[in-house]
Amino acid sequence: MTARAALGILPSPTRFAIAAMKSLLATAVLAATLATAPVHAAQPVKVGVIAPFSGVAADFGRQMQAGMQAYFKLHGDTFAGRRIELVVRDTGGPNGDVAKRLAQELVTRDKVDFLAGFGFTPEALAVAPVATEAKKPMVVMNAATSIVTEKSPYIVRFSMTLPQVSAPMATWAAKNGIKNVYTLVTDYAPGIDAEKQFKATFEAAGGKVVDSVRTPLRNPEFAPYVQRIKDAKPDAVFIFVPAGEQSVAFMKAFEERGLKEAGIKLIATGDLTDDDVLQAMGEPTLGIISSHHYSAAHDSPENRAFVKAFREVGNGLDRPNFMAVGGYDGMAAIADVVKKLGDRIDPDEAMEILKHEKMTSPRGPIHIDPATRDIVQTVYIRRVEKRDGQYWNVEFDKFPDVRDPGKQGGQK
Ligand code: PHB
Hints:
The protein has 13 helices and 15 strands. By secondary structure, the chain is α/β, with parallel strands linked by helices. The strands form two sheets. Strands 7, 8, 9, 10, 11, 12, 13, 14 and 15 form a nine-stranded mixed sheet that branches. P-hydroxybenzoic acid (PHB) binds at residues 120-121, 142-145, 190, 242-243, 271.
């Protein structure tokens, strides 16, 4: 009952009537409080997931979502009495404008508590100001350009950065007899990060980048670039292309132009030998050396449990890739916040918790650097091998506790 309606039923303003009105209002307020309190306690925590779920990069979203579901499968989905609910939205690809609109809707209409996902850097960059304005913790599960975390104090990253995985590849190459390298990267922020860091680290270690080429983000035709690399006769070619469709297209050109036969080694960030498509790329990938933070073949009890749970929830996806582990670990961090804050998820308190996360992930030990809100982790050097008829990224060397060199003024 409103105050106006309460006044309507009261007789002339006697002392008694005023006292009665006050008591009626107090009762109404108390009743309203009691009515909302238990309902609020039972409300789910909403996580708005923004990623591509259609188009050529549809598996980015599917992998992340299956990673989050694998977390629920192993640990449950309810913490401090509150169930975590995913509200999934499809960007269709590296489309910043769409990602921004979806984030605004998730905040204003769906009233999400967290924003999560982000397959492509342009999605994360476009959503950053929304996270700042709405004060929504934004958990990045892939987007891997160094600067992403600097775009909002509400961003924390559970994936990787391209400089973080490119520097170890350069160090390894320089130590293993590779002297001249040609680089090929996709022409957008993560590719430029990879190219710059590889060159800085490799040349500081005595190597030489003989030439560099950048290929378009959409529908690249790799054959002419690969031919040019073949003609330049470097010891090796270093590659970053976004995982999935582009890996497949690049490998096709690499094989058709006979670079392996020409004795040109292929070194890359693990995006090229993405576990999601490695099986489909098959034989030509044998022997590729790559550096990355996750392999489905990683040998640990945590990873065995993760791979098994992923297969059970993965909606037909055969094995988890690095985006799935980003989803799993990002969800572990969100669950930790819910456990600690329960009924009242204050965004600034949530960020304090997220900034100090430290856990044993299926990929190995990880923690967040509270100063940068970026991940610190082991980067592995792997070789594609065939075991029991299947292709795997087999880890054989590692660089522990790697920070994002992009944040340290391009550290060698
Ligand atoms: C990115 O856009 O940040 C991105 C996309 C795909 C990858 C890596 C990075 O494989």
